[in-house]
Amino acid sequence: MKRISVTVNGVRHEAEVEPRTLLVYFIREQLGLTGTNVGCDTSSCGACTVHLNGQSVKSCTVLAVQADGQEVTTIEGLATNGKLHPMQQAFHEEHGLQCGFCTPGMIMAAVGIVDENPDPSEAEVREALEGNLCRCTGYHNIVRAVISGAKASV
Amino acid sequence: MAAGQKYVGGGVPRKEDPQLLTGQATFVENLTVPGMVHAALVRSPYGAARIKKVDLSAALAAPDVVAAFSGEDLADEWAAGLPMAWPVTDDIRIPDHWPVAKDVVRYVGDAVAVVVATSRAAAADAAELVDVDYEELPTVVDIEGAMAPGAPRVHESFENNECYTWTHSTGDIDAAFAKADVVVKGEYTQPRLIPNAMEPRAVLVQPSPAAGDFTMWSTTQIPHIAKILLSMILGISESKMRVIAPDVGGGFGSKLNVYAEEALCIALARRLGLPVKWVAGRSEGYLATIHGRDQLQEIELAATSEGKILGYRVKIRANMGAYLQLVAPGVPLLGGFLYCGSYGGEAYHFECTGVFTNTTPTDAYRGAGRPEATYAIERAIELLARKVGLDSIEIRKLNYLPQGEMVPSPGGLEFDSTNYAPNLDRALELLGHDAVRAEQAERRAQGSTKVLGLGFSTFVEMCGLAPSQVLASLNYGAGGWDAATVRMLPTGKAEVVTGTSPHGQGHVTCWSQIAADALGLDIDDIEVLHGDTHVAPHGMNTYGSRSLSVGGIAVYEACGRVVEKAKTIAAHLLEVSPEDLAFENGSFSVKGVPDRTKAIQELAYAAWTAHSLPEGTEPGLEANCVWDPPNFTYPFGSHLCVVEVDTETGDVDILRYVAVDDCGTVINPVIVEGQVHGGVAQGIAAALYEEATYAEDGTLETSSMINYLVPSAAEFPSFELDRTLTPSTSNPLGVKGIGEAGTIASTPAVINAVADALAHLDVGEVPIPATPERVWRLIQNAKGGAA
Ligand code: FES
Ligand code: FES
Question: For B344-356, what is the mean pLDDT?
Fold first, then answer.
């Protein structure tokens, strides 16, 4: 067991973890923040996307111990004072989600995309979302949501 | 019933979204109960083998392990095997199917043992320590191999691998072919597909040992059906079972089943007296969750020299996999009436043989039988067009069924509403057909290596499952109704209890729209309750694009009954006769005296206090409806796809995708469009990317998301949609269903486009998925090059 200290959504957590524990299971099972989903076992789907020090990462590709001393933001930390983040709002308005399983990862990835490119084209959004799979929406409305969320975020 | 139309037809933002957007969803994997233990399964690595010995000792000695069992150890848990509800013929062969195999495994992934531990990781680690001694048996994985004389038998107790043969005919098919001027024949392979709902399957069972009852949370589309069948498998009184489908992350048919792990977790919870949870990894799901499609098709059209179709002769073989899952034998039948598509003719003959192989069982995957049928007819009609010298539009318009209601189709169905030509015209207009053809011709003339193709798919499908008596005639083991309760609460709010079980479709929003308009309430004053058999005791659940046209109608009708009862109370309180009342925007008023009114909220309160009700009226303002539809519904549409094929690399790029659907009345256009987008994407994925393959020894070669390509946003264009509106005559709202239409329509639209792009090269049949390598080879072969 290793002792780590990770700040998640602004709250610092001290915890014992097994060295093999993936960040996503630390977040879900040890911290009880189940908004971040696990959709695969091959780092393919992006359902587990969170921000690590402001960068979007697939949290199934990071060990919990690697997050020691770092800041993590999950979907639960995105809304502020009960107000949806502009990207969450955009997904709602553009019907960018159906079952909602890919949605937390999709939104965290989208926020990351817009951080890097505040005014992405449709093609740029499609390219940048390559690591996030959705089986319900055909991506049409997700792409629209990301573009509209980008506009609302500036 | 007089009702305002404030919400129905509008793009009301979804009520489902807030919890899904903020990480508060109740997906089964997110749920925990105190004392919960975790199950991990040991699965066969062999396509076929006899289990000689299962040694659990090392697993039992591992840390945190609570218990471990072999199939033999669990044998006395089962009062019945895993169910198959659709014995399509009287002589169908139905193999025993136990949640955990006892003596023989028949596909890679068949369960042989289970380990229970206090954490998921400990259970998985200990499962690795279970030592199973197998004696390998010969395998067969493909349809033709399984039907060959002397093939290894998947089930020794059957004399060969044929499960059933089902036939269906109308008219005199031999006469139609005898008088035909032309006959065309298409042969197609429908690849095996992995549904890939993004949420992997999971189960959590909580027993109350003293009371003898069980609560199961499951990633299921069918909580009510599962409750009945699981109680039969486990020998538990149905009244002791509660099944909850909380937030469910997509299904597409893959969660329309009663699965081994559901039965197993209940059995383990009963044995151990502990809550038991199981969560599938994605790759485990690839083995242990149903696959779809996997058919070989032959279709022949008999036609006049002008291109008028006289008859359809269809023969298909369908891979059932190693066992029969819930509705597997019936899946090809759902397409079996539709190999004539939207076209006319005199005679029709369909024959399907189901076949066992050493592969994961197949079952319903989005469209279930209808994508396969649509593919065959929409490809074959292009063959006919070519043969008689018509273009894609002319051949269709020549053969369309006439516009009308209850129009008989050669497949033996009566289509509720047909109006096909205007629908196609709208699609052509949206596409700008002539400009696309002009550009295609120009590129060809220039000898461009980036050739254009335009593909058509003008489909009709059948949904709204289903009139119960029709299901009876098909040997289906249940009815096709659905149920709703609409309950006004004393404070003027309403609860809508539905038997449908949504997993992304937006029923909460759509049922709220229907009820809010029907009752004259604000949409936020409606709560939709679903997916818990204790809360919504009756339902047939969600599959086959049935929810709106069956369950939604039950909601609408129940609302009408609530309004009728409210009216009698209003009349009593206003001291007029009910006929003197008008109902609008949630308020009853005396005709001609508009200021004498009673709001439905007041009447709900009056019904609850019961202080002054008409003679013989029971307290409360609530009504039920169980809607058994009089007919299926038959959505139709025209999907047009423009592709660019790179003749040097074989790459296919979709430039445009135009879809004009007719799903009857639309409750929420934004949700309808979302269903089309998602459906089209799955059909495009089948056309260009996805295919599950097995090695001869039964190993699933496409065993994870790394080698089974689920496409991303980068692989799709934006879609261009419109609709025509031809209301269904099967229900009072005129709705049809839209959940599967996109998937049914899109695969042939794409492949027809690829074929059209290469038409000048005479390449022959385009296989699916049309991967770059396959397309490149077609081109090389046509050029006579060495490929
Ligand atoms: S769960 Fe992390 S990429 Fe799929
Ligand atoms: S909304 Fe269901 S997977 Fe994306």
Answer: 98
Taking CB atoms and an 8 Å limit, are A107 and B677 in contact across chains?
Answer: no
Distance of alpha carbon B153 from alpha carbon B165, whole angstroms: 17
- Has residue B2 got a pLDDT over 70? no
B284: left (phi over 0), alpha (psi -120 to 50) or beta: alpha
| Residues in chain B closer than 8 A to A99 (CB atoms) | 20, 197-199, 247-250, 503-504
Backbone angles phi, psi at B188, to 5 degrees: -135, 150
Burial (CB < 10 A; 0-12, 13-18, 19+), residue A12, is: exposed
Query: Taking 60 as the threshold, does the pLDDT of residue B787 lie above it?
Result: no
Residue B685: HSE in the Cβ half-sphere, 13 Å Cα cutoff: 31
Residue ranges of domains in chain A, CATH in brackets? 2-76 (3.10.20.30), 86-153 (1.10.150.120)
Give residue for tokens 């890919």: A102
Read off the tokens for B99: 């949640």
A21-64 per-position pLDDT tens digit: 999 999 999 999 999 999 999 999 999 999 999 999 999 999 99
Query: What angle do helix axes B741-757 and B370-388 make, rounded to 10 degrees?
Result: 30
* A/B interface, count of CB pairs below 8 Å: 182
Measured distance CA(B217)–CA(A104) in Å, rounded: 22
Q: Cβ–Cβ of A98/B674 closer than 8 Å?
A: yes
Find the mean pLDDT for residues B400-413.
Answer: 98
User: In terms of C-beta density within 10 A (0-12 exposed, 13-18 middle, 19 or more buried), how is residue B579 classed?
Assistant: exposed
Give pLDDT tens digits for B592-632.
Answer: 998 999 999 999 999 999 999 999 999 999 999 999 999 99
Kindly list the structural domains of chain B, giving each domain's residue range(s) and its CATH number in brackets, ordered by start: 17-23+481-627 (3.30.365.10), 31-137+198-250+255-288 (3.90.1170.50), 292-465+631-783 (3.30.365.10)
Instruction: Determine the distance in angstroms separating the CA of B360 from the nearest CA of chain A, rounded to an integer.
Output: 19
B396: amino acid identity, one letter: R
pTM for this one? 0.97
Task: Please state, in angstroms and rounded to a whole number, the distance separating the CA atoms of residues B5 and B667.
Answer: 10
What whole-number distance in Å separates Cα of residue B102 and Cα of residue B50? 9
**What single-letter amino acid sits at B646?**
D
Complex ipTM > 0.85: yes
